[in-house]
């Protein structure tokens, strides 16, 4: 068993995309936790700086759609982090502010179906155009507490 030294917000600030871990920092997770995850699991960890307090966790500003594709709200990230995302995911779905503030990116995908807030209408249309099947759910009450779809899940990996 390994005890963390640095504060981390777990699934909120660590997202697995293929063979990478995207790791958010800026509001709740200490950047030192990124190094701990990389050392513990031996897989590349990409640090991403969040700069807009409305998007306090990585999973409020970025959604993993499949092993190669993400959706994100560019303005939630520092210029350097936006550059990293553009290089790693040139075909990413870019969310509008309107879709991001209803936590449309706090979504869950199995690679085809994407469960997201029904209020993220533009994002749902973009996903449909890319061949995904968006499934909108009304989580407007949970939004008042700062959460959405992904906040209602716990991923279990082998």
Give the helix/strand layout:
Layout: E1 14-17, E2 20-25, H1 32-41, E3 45-49, E4 62-64, E5 70-72, H2 79-88, E6 93-94, H3 97-101, E7 108-109, E8 113-117, H4 121-129, E9 133-137, H5 140-143
Parallel strand pairs: 2-3, 5-6, 8-9
Antiparallel strand pairs: 1-2, 4-5, 7-8
Q: Keywords for this structure?
A:
three-stranded mixed sheet, 158 residues, alpha/beta, single chain, 5 helices
Report what the structure shows.
The protein has 158 residues and is an alpha/beta fold. Helix content is 24%, strand content 22%. It has 5 helices and 9 strands; from the N terminus they run E-E-H-E-E-E-H-E-H-E-E-H-E-H. The protein has a 3-stranded mixed sheet, sandwiched between helices. The chain has a 3-stranded mixed sheet with strand order 4-5-6, with helices on one face. A 3-stranded mixed sheet has the order 7-8-9, with helices on one face. The longest helix is centred in the first third of the chain and has 10 residues, at 32-41. The mean pLDDT is 94.
Strand order of the largest sheet: 1-2-3
Structural class: alpha/beta
Number of strands: 9
Q: What is the helix content?
A: 10-25%
Average of the residue pLDDT scores: 94
Oligomer: single chain
Instruction: Report the span from N to C terminus.
Output: 16 Å
Strand content: 15-25%
Are there runs of 5+ residues with pLDDT below 50, and where?
Answer: none
Tell me the overall shape: globular
What would you report as the Rg, rounded to the nearest angstrom?
A: 15 Å
The main pleated sheet reads as: 3 strands, mixed
Order of helices and strands: EEHEEEHEHEEHEH
